[in-house]
Specification:
This protein is an alpha/beta fold and 392 residues long. It has 2 domains: 225 residues, Response regulator (Rossmann fold, 3-Layer(aba) Sandwich), CATH 3.40.50; 132 residues, Rossmann fold, CATH 3.40.50.2300. The chain contains 12 helices and 16 strands. A 7-stranded mixed β-sheet has the order 8-7-9-10-11-15-16, sandwiched between helices. Strands 1-3-2-4-5-6 form a 6-stranded mixed β-sheet, with helices on both faces. The chain has a 3-stranded antiparallel β-sheet with strand order 12-13-14, with no helix packed on it. A hairpin with a 2-residue loop joins β13 and β14. The N terminus is likely disordered.
């Protein structure tokens, strides 16, 4: 499928192009140009589309309110189809041909990891990644990478802490996708459990290209685990749900089943159906439908206004938050904004309340939101778990 170009409709880019350019690339008297490469079609198409709409809902609202220091935010987004090579091509075009000021809302570990040398060498900040991987993108520290979501290690650690310390469940198995992604989350789980002097009691794997849960289920059931960590990338939610279905049929009705939001929370809940009880999903944002959370209310209001046919979700909310932090950095950087100034402005935010969400940055800390929200599912909808007694 040909590459798709999405340009902010409310902004006439001819005005951007004809305005006398300032010293910093991507900045004119009237606009600041932001670029993004993300999957809008292909395997991760739904992730990219929801991220894009969350981003644009935020930017449309900001531009309608006057923009940042009198400038509107213009966006050029290219579809990389979750293909690392296309992401590299898109990023190169955004930097060299389009002359963007900064990048935002990249989706996926293989895509962002492959393209990172381009923006790093050009000294261009990228604010907001839809990935929680630690190596390369987070460790070692990268000045030009501004993260918002918690890492996968933080997600698994939060759940292991509850399992061991709150619920006293220490027999934990791992069912994981047999590839580099699955191995990484398995390792995160092992590292977290090791801090309690524990190791997984059993392992089971699946091939995402030819999924079968029967062999893995036999191995895991034999160990009689208290809980099973389910590890799969986006698009494997049906495999993880099938494991839960079959495990409960096999007599594991009292076990807990935990997975990360990268699986696709809404899709996972639908696939589970009536078997969603005792299933826990870690989220990197609070529930988007929390009426007590100002930022969640702002997101839903903007999405309804600019994308009335779209349904609010965790992924879109994350894209919205990414963009709010980007634009907050632009505001703090001042009228004479530069790329280095944007990074310094975000780094100087420190710990602050961002519409009810705690965010933290520093000169050597570009992690953003450290908190992980552990959610349960009821009637197909997610809620943050506050009372763990029902899971004992």
């Amino acid at each position: 499928m040909p590459r798709k170009l999405f340009i902010l409709l409310s902004l006439i880019l001819t005005a951007y192009c004809t305005t006398a350019s300032l010293a910093e690339p991507g900045v004119t008297d009237s606009a600041i140009l932001i670029g993004s490469s993300l999957a809008l079609t292909g395997p991760g198409g739904e992730l990219g589309t929801q991220t894009y709409r969350g981003m644009m809902a935020c930017i449309n609202a900001l531009n309608e309110a006057g923009g940042v220091h009198g400038r509107k935010i213009a966006v050029i987004s290219y579809d990389d189809e979750y293909n690392p090579i296309k992401c590299v091509e898109n990023t190169k075009k955004l930097i060299e041909s389009d002359g963007i000021f900064a990048l935002s809302c990249y989706v996926g570990t293989p895509t962002a990891g492959k393209a990172m040398p381009l923006w790093k060498n050009a000294k261009i900040p990228l604010v907001g990644f839809y990935t929680g991987v630690v190596p390369i993108l987070r460790n070692p520290f990268q000045r030009y990478n501004i993260h918002i979501r918690a890492s996968y290690f933080q997600e698994t650690s939060a759940m292991m802490n509850v399992l061991v310390n709150t619920l006293n469940k220490k027999k934990i198995a791992v069912f994981y996708q047999y590839d580099s992604f699955g191995e990484a989350i398995k390792k995160d789980t092992e590292t977290s459990l090791a801090s309690y002097g524990l190791t997984p009691v059993a392992y089971g794997t699946f091939d995402k290209n030819a999924p079968d849960v029967s062999t893995a289920l036999k191995l895991i059931k034999a160990a009689a685990p208290d809980a099973v960590v389910l590890v799969g990338a986006y698009g494997t939610h049906m495999v993880l749900a099938e494991f839960v279905h079959e495990a409960k049929k096999a007599g594991m009705s009292q076990a807990l089943f935990y997975t990360l939001n990268v699986i696709g929370s809404e899709e996972f809940a639908k696939s589970l159906g009536k078997d969603s009880s005792r299933c826990i999903v870690s989220q990197v944002t609070p529930p988007y439908d929390d009426a007590q959370l100002p930022l969640a209310n702002e997101y839903r209001k903007a999405l309804q206004k600019y994308f009335p046919k779209d349904t609010p979700g965790f992924v879109g909310f994350e894209g919205f938050i990414n963009t709010k932090i980007l634009t907050e950095g632009l505001k703090k950087a001042g009228k004479e904004v530069t790329r280095e100034g944007l990074i310094d402005a975000i780094s100087a935010l420190g710990n602050f309340d961002f519409g009810g969400i705690q965010v933290g940055y520093g000169p050597q800390d570009h992690e953003g939101m450290d908190k992980v929200y552990l959610t349960g599912i009821k009637d197909g909808k997610y809620y943050e778990i506050k009372d763990w007694s029902v899971y004992k």
